């Protein structure tokens, strides 16, 4: 057995650092430039999307998705369905940008949005948008959710920050929604130190993303799109570079981060294959008859950022996690549990009883799937759990 099993291990290795050093020795401009554009093209091609916009974090990517829909004026209203099992910055932009968030419980298999409960909320509220999370890499029930989108006409945002490389019916997550977000934080599938990406197939959204990411100006648009913006508002030629069309942000990343990202693209398929293989070992060994419920989707290839299991009870989880810690196996709770019980939510909105989200909060624990660990390492971890 290893001395320790960590949840997050840096994917940036010596080769990546050497690549960065060699690039830095050319004394390049470090801020947003050609390498960012190159990384965006590389990611879009790998993901199978028309457009990709690099920003400074996955959280910023979520913020940009909300802001883009708002600026597009495509929304029928500002109501948005948000998942009870998610991350704070999946939900926070709704509050920050003046949406009306309506929280939906998870389903017991994927821990993503429950399509039946989602439809109840769609009937009641007729929201203009929905955001889903592929929780820790397990795809949501996309057939059902897309069917609801066809029926009710909402705009769909996919938070795929922890789901790079996961497939649903052979299709990569992040390619189903109107907009999708990814994260390149330390220990995620690939890393740019800090960073995030928004993907879309909608050219208008791509233009809005570029403007909103950078102050609201049009300098990052192609010449034709920039000219259209200037013409619409009859902007004087000399003033065009510093004309702001939207109340934007500064969420740009840099060429330095993009160089690291481009180096990561050389290994992304190998990294994803390792995570898929490790997750499958947990699926094989931690089964219901052994006292555990495993997050799953039978129509998916799961490239997880971590495997999540439910113990039989909070007390059972305490025993298991104590055993894991004694063997230096890192473990964590699942995100923030039922998000309606988080202080940022309940200081503004009613706390809600969500049976599945509350069960997850009470008994879920995460397990490492990082490819620095081999399938045999994962079997060792399972042995500790099953012998507790």
Describe it for me?
With 388 residues, this protein is α/β, with parallel strands linked by helices. The chain has 2 domains: 252 residues, Aspartate Aminotransferase, domain 2, CATH 3.40.640; 119 residues, Aspartate Aminotransferase, domain 1. Helix content is 41%, strand content 13%. It is built from 14 helices and 13 strands. A 7-stranded mixed beta sheet has the order 1-9-8-5-4-2-3, with helices on both faces. It has a 3-stranded antiparallel beta sheet with strand order 7-6-11, with no helix packed on it. The chain has a 3-stranded antiparallel beta sheet with strand order 10-12-13. Strand 4, helix 6 and strand 5 form a beta-alpha-beta unit. Helix 1 packs across helix 9 and helix 3 packs across helix 7.
